[in-house]
Write a structure and sequence with these properties.
It is a single chain. This protein folds into 2 domains: 1-44 and 102-195, Nucleoside diphosphate kinase-like domain (Alpha-Beta Plaits), CATH 3.30.70; 47-101, no CATH class. The protein contains 10 helices and 4 strands; from the N terminus they run E-H-H-E-H-H-H-E-H-H-H-E-H-H. It has helices at 15-19, 23-33, 47-54, 60-74, 84-99, 114-122, 135-139, 144-149, 164-174, 188-192, and strands at 8-13, 36-43, 104-110, 158-160. The protein has a 4-stranded antiparallel sheet with strand order 2-3-1-4. The protein binds adenosine-5'-diphosphate and magnesium ion. Adenosine-5'-diphosphate binds next to helix 4, helix 5 and helix 8.
Length: 201
């Protein structure tokens, strides 16, 4: 089996996804693309666990603030602050409230290019501008402007790791190795085997 098939990513169905009965719909999108579910739990994390999750990546605070400022400016609006770290401090507090409000589903999906593939299926952070056909684009309405005005986190149904390094850190943060199952899916042969031998009778 190709080494590519070992790539793993951490995905969460956030409280709004669970509350809106979208668990099956969201899981179905990862299944149908050919990824393998290797870990899954339902839980209400602590605020500390949520903060640690988002700050595993040392540049997350800067990048997230900058992304928010850029989105405001692109839409001809004035951002709440010009300081990315100030913006992210507020986002982080709101994320803690959001993710401790009710249960989330936390999962590990495995397969070739799983990190990038899942990000593509999930769509951009802000549902208003997420592409049609993506989970965030298809199933939810929200914008930075609306969530910031209401002083809450943007509700976008899902979390997905942003890079392979981030994924490995996040997987360790949410799962112990023995909670992740090593197994073969029948369909993987068709996805990854070099020769499609033994199919003709
Ligand atoms: P993503 O989840 O797409 O990787 P980020 O890592 O930048 O996005 O941000 C983490 C989460 O924080 C987002 O999914 C969203 O719920 C929330 N968030 C990000 N930026 C904002 C913002 N400007 N206002 C409110 N919530 C935000
Ligand atoms: Mg992120």
């Amino acid at each position: 089996m190709s080494e590519f098939s070992k790539e793993r990513t951490l995905v969460m169905i956030k409280p709004d996804g669970v509350q809106r009965s979208l668990i099956g719909e969201i899981i179905g999108r990862f299944e149908r693309v050919g990824l393998k579910l290797v870990g899954l739990k339902i839980m209400v994390p602590t605020a500390k666990h949520v903060e640690e999750h988002y700050t595993l990546d040392p540049v997350w605070r800067t990048v997230t603030g900058e992304k928010t400022i850029a989105s405001y400016k692109k839409n001809g609006k004035t951002p709440p602050s010009e300081d990315p770290l100030e913006i992210t401090a507020v986002i982080l507090e709101n994320l803690k409230k959001y993710l401790t409000s009710s249960p989330s589903i936390v999962m590990v999906w495995q397969g070739a290019h799983s990190v990038g593939l899942v990000r593509k299926l999930v769509g951009g952070t802000e549902p208003l501008t997420s592409d049609v056909g993506t989970i965030r684009g298809d199933f939810v309405i929200d914008s930075y402007e609306m969530s910031d005005a209401d002083g809450r986190a943007i509700r976008n149904l899902t979390h997905a790791s942003g890079s392979v390094e981030e994924a490995e850190m996040e997987i360790k943060h949410w799962f112990s190795e023995d909670e992740l199952i090593k197994y073969r899916l029948v369909g993987e042969q068709i996805l990854y085997d070099v020769n499609l031998d033994g199919k003709l009778e």
